Structures are given as structure tokens and as C-alpha cells.
């Protein structure tokens, strides 16, 4: 219960955390089933919480990866992706602006900015759009 009091956990994640404490003869799956019946444990709530917490800093690829790592089902991930992808370009612009703020002046700097955004889980086409719009806004100022 202490794990669930801190934040939402997926069934797979809670199972992994509790497994070392299971003694012979105890049925962990029965306990997890009971928690789900009482609505104390929900993969959907865990997925929603993670998406809400990460959406302002990470791209859809990174968030989907983290959901998979926590044992969230593919159906819930597929349900969250369209909403994430819809706001991904805007999120990538915000992340880029906070980190860099100025378009790259040379190829080495462009590669560095691209690697940073890729590490945050943004797709290549979104990254290129961000850098192109940044370079376009610089040209507009001249």
C-alpha cells in the first residue's frame, strides 16, 4: 500500500517491486487481482499519470518507451499516442527554446541540437521542423 500511496503503479511494475517479498505459499497474483477489484491498482491511471508528468519535456517515442518499461499494455499506449503526437511539435519547440534559444550556426552545433532532441524522444521529422522554423525566424529578423 505504501507504493500506491506515493504514486500510481502499473500491475507489472508493482508485481516486480513486490516479488522479492513473496514467501512460499503466498499468491501475489491474487493480491494484485484484489487490488484491481477494489480499484486501488489501475494500469490506465498509471499510464495517464506518467503521460501527464512527462508530456512537457519528452517526445512520444520516449514516453511510449517508459510506458512499456513500466508494464503498461500496448492498447493503453496506442490510446495515448495520438494525443501526444498532436502536441509533439509544440513540445519540441518549447524544449528546444529552453535549452538552446538560437538556431545552430554550423553543422556541428546542428548535430548537437538534433542529438539532444532525439534523446528526449522526438522524431527526426519533428526535430527538422523545429530547426527549420528556428532558422526561418532568424532569417525573418534580418
Order of helices and strands: HHHHHHHHH
* Count of the separate structural domains: 2
The tally of beta strands, per DSSP, is: 0
Shape: elongated
> What Rg, in angstroms, do the CA atoms define?
20 Å
Helix count from the secondary structure assignment: 9
Q: Which regions are unreliable across 5 or more consecutive residues at pLDDT < 50?
A: none
Approximately how much helix is present in the residues?
A: over 70%
- What share of the residues does DSSP label as strand, in percent? under 5%
The class by helix and strand makeup works out as mainly alpha
Q: Mind summarizing the main beta sheet?
A: none
Termini separation comes to 60 Å
- Mean pLDDT score: 89
Brief summary:
The chain has 142 residues and is mainly α.
Keywords:
142 residues; 0% strand; mainly alpha; single chain; 2 domains; 9 helices; elongated
Describe the structure.
With 142 residues, the protein is an all-alpha fold. Helix content is 71%, strand content 0%. The relative contact order is 0.11.
SSE topology sketch:
Layout: H1 2-6, H2 11-18, H3 28-37, H4 43-54, H5 60-69, H6 74-86, H7 88-99, H8 107-119, H9 124-141
Helix pairs in contact: 4-6, 5-6, 7-9, 8-9
Amino acid at each position: 500500500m505504501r507504493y500506491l500511496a506515493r504514486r500510481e503503479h502499473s500491475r507489472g511494475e508493482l508485481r516486480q517491486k513486490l516479488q522479492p517479498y513473496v514467501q512460499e505459499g503466498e499468491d501475489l497474483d491474487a493480491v494484485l487481482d484484489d487490488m484491481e477489484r477494489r480499484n486501488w491498482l489501475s494500469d490506465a491511471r498509471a499510464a495517464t499519470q506518467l503521460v501527464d508528468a512527462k508530456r512537457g519535456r519528452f517526445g512520444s517515442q520516449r514516453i511510449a518507451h517508459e510506458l512499456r518499461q513500466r508494464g503498461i499494455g500496448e492498447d493503453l499506449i496506442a490510446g495515448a499516442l495520438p494525443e501526444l503526437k498532436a502536441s509533439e511539435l509544440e513540445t519540441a519547440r518549447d524544449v528546444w527554446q529552453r535549452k538552446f534559444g538560437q538556431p545552430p550556426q554550423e553543422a556541428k552545433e546542428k548535430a548537437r541540437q538534433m542529438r539532444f532532441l532525439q534523446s528526449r524522444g522526438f522524431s527526426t521529422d519533428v526535430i527538422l521542423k523545429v530547426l527549420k522554423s528556428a532558422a526561418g525566424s532568424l532569417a525573418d529578423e534580418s
